[in-house]
Structure formats: C-alpha cells, structure tokens
Amino acid sequence: MEIFKPLEVKGSRQEPETEQVEKVRCLILGSGPAGYTAAIYAARANLKPVLYTGLEMGGQLTTTTDVENFPGFPEGITGPELMENMKKQAERFGTDIRIGIATSADFSQRPLKVVIDDRKTILADAVIIATGATAKYLGIEAEKKYAGRGVSACATCDGFFYRGKDVAVVGGGDTACEEATYLAGLCRKVYMIVRRNVLRASKAMQQKVLNTPNIEILWEHQVKDLFGEEGVEGAILVKKKGTPEEEIVKIKIDGIFLAIGHTPNSGPFSKYIETDATGYIKTVPGTSKTNIPGVFAAGDVQDPQYRQAVTAAGSGCMAAIDAERYLAGLESST
Q: Can you say how many angstroms the Cα of residue 129 is from the centroid of all Cα atoms in its chain?
C-alpha cells in the first residue's frame, strides 16, 4: 500500500520576480492606423520594429462599423477589417506585434526606456508614440449599447450615413460647432444639446451656427438616455437639470454625435515629452519629432485638429521615416 504524503504548503512570501529587460532598435506604441503604418515602413526599412498594441488592438476604428472615406476601398470596409488588414501587412514585413500597454517611460538617458504593463522594461534606440486619443463620453449606459448604431464621436467619419436624417450634437465648444455645421450640410435637422445657456466656441463659430437654418440649439439641456430598437431612434433630455424648472424632454433623432472633447493618451510620457495644455504631444512642424531626440509621435496623440484614419496613417509613415533617418545618423556617428 502506497502512502501519499500531504503536499508541503509554502509560506505566502514570494521571491521577487527577476526584472524583464529587452533591448530593441525601434519600439512602436499603439496599434491604430498610425502605429501599424509606422510598423510597415519601419519593417521595410529593416528597423526590426517591436509594436505593443496598447489597451485596444486596432484603436478606435475597431468600434466603427463602416469606413467609407479611407482611400482604396470604393465599396467601403468595416473598421475591424481595415485594422486587421493593416496588422497583417505589418506582420508580413516582419513587425513583432505584442499585446501590452506602456505604463511608464524614462527618456532622460540612452537607450530610451519604456515599461510595459508595469513589469517588462524595453530599452530602445528609437520610440514612436502612436497611442491615440480617447473620446470623452457622457457616462450613460446607452452609449455602450448603441456604439456603432447611432452613437459616434466623429461627424467627419460617420456623418455620411445620416444624410437626410435628424441628428444631435452634444457640446458647446468649437468642435461641437464644427461638427454641427458639417452635419447641417448632410442632414435634415441638427440639434445642438448645450449644457449651459451660452456657447464656449469662438465668436466666428457661434455666428456660423446661428446663421445655419437647420441647426436648433437646445440650451441648458443634458442627455439622460437614448432609446431605439435596432439603433438610436431618439434621446431623453433633462432641461435645467437640478433646478426647480427641471423638465424631461424627448427628441426623435437617428444619431447622436459626442463633441465634448478627446483625451490624448500621452500620460506615461508627459514627464519628458512636451505637450500642449490638453495633453497632445507637440511635434516639430512638418515632422514627427518631439522635444526628445529619438522619440517621435504620430496619429491622434499629437493631432487635435483632424483625427482621421488617413491623416493618422500619413503621420505614422512620417514617424517611421524620421526614425530611420535618426537611427542612420546614430550609426554613422559611431
């Protein structure tokens, strides 16, 4: 008869993990159009790029159903399919694509240091930051329910699908006014849902909105909920929220556009990389160069103006070429 001894249970104290450190030539952070395009060009230049995808593989386009304004697809393409194609193209040329998030960085010395997921240290000769920007949302559950089915954060991207329909724009700043006037050229009716009793936009933009006949401003309104079967069919608003005059208002709309701002994902690098007041990374005009030699920025993390897939891809190309020239200069000087 064989006697089994009970397993020995070790104490709760664990030995510290050995720090993981890896040296690479070119590190790319982000997997949107900017990151994947940078990877394609960097790989073709034999920079042997390592790309970490970030929080959302494929970036914001993975939450978009149809993309009809990216060149080369006359019949359109879905956002996830477009990003999967870019990923495969980057891999085809040898990009090492990994899942992980940049959680901190140290650009005070060479090689450049980036920590992934708080546990792995990557030392790189060149870093391309393409971490994108995150649209600000209202925080209501319906935003998730109707994502891609009537809720959008980009009129230029999705306005075409609402031609001849009624839509709403949330916000009162320049971006909201720009979105509203753009949509007014496509849609039958545009409601602007403004929390305050004034617009924060510049006088010129305010005048443009006020002079557009199919834009109606709903002052002192906030979105409480959305409703609809297959997609957005209307919005429930609160007028003068928190006051004795508070009332519930319903409007019938086919889509709602959020224009309350974006948050650039530049936090882990802000100690070393120069940004504007909002957090967008500043680059030397006409280039992707930041204030730190060897660190480049591409896509929405440095673009508060356009925020389009095609402009992000173009800046990713610029970043890879700038990185290749930078690395070539390093090698020639040694």
A: 12
Q: How confident is the prediction for the chain on average, in pLDDT?
A: 92
What topology is assigned to 137-258 in CATH?
A: FAD/NAD(P)-binding domain (3.50.50)
Q: For residues 53 and 84, is the Cβ–Cβ distance under 8 A?
A: no
Query: Can you tell me the distance from the alpha carbon of 10 to that of 113, in angstroms, rounded to the nearest whole number?
Result: 36
Tokens of 281: 């990374």
Give the pair of three-digit tokens for residue 332.
């020639």
CATH class of 20-134+262-332: alpha beta
* Whether pLDDT at 64 is above 60: yes
Q: How many CB atoms lie within 10 A of CB 80?
A: 16
* pLDDT tens-digit map of 159-196: 999 999 999 999 999 889 999 999 999 999 999 999 99
Q: What is the rounded end-to-end Cα distance, in angstroms, of the chain?
A: 72
Give catalytic residue positions: 154, 157-158
Give the pLDDT of residue 19: 65
Q: pLDDT confidence of 10, banded at 50, 70, 90?
A: very low
Rounded CA gap, 21 and 216, in Å?
A: 57
**Does 61 score more than 60 pLDDT?**
yes
Average of pLDDT values for 65-70?
84
What backbone phi and psi angles, to 5 degrees, belong to 143?
Answer: -60, -40
- Residue 334, pLDDT above cutoff 90: no
Structure tokens at 275: 């940004």
CA 305, CA 301: separation in Å to the nearest integer? 11
Q: Distance of alpha carbon 141 from its chain centroid, rounded?
A: 20
Please list, residue by residue across 219-248, b when 16 or more beta carbons sit within 10 angstroms of its beta carbon and e when fewer do: ebbbbbebebeeebebbebbeeeeeeeeee
Angle at 56 between CA 268 and CA 274, to 5 degrees: 25
Domain positions in the chain: 20-134+262-332, 137-258
C-alpha closest to that of 215 among 254, 186, 195: 186
Please tell me the distance from the alpha carbon of residue 283 to that of residue 305, in angstroms, as a whole number: 13
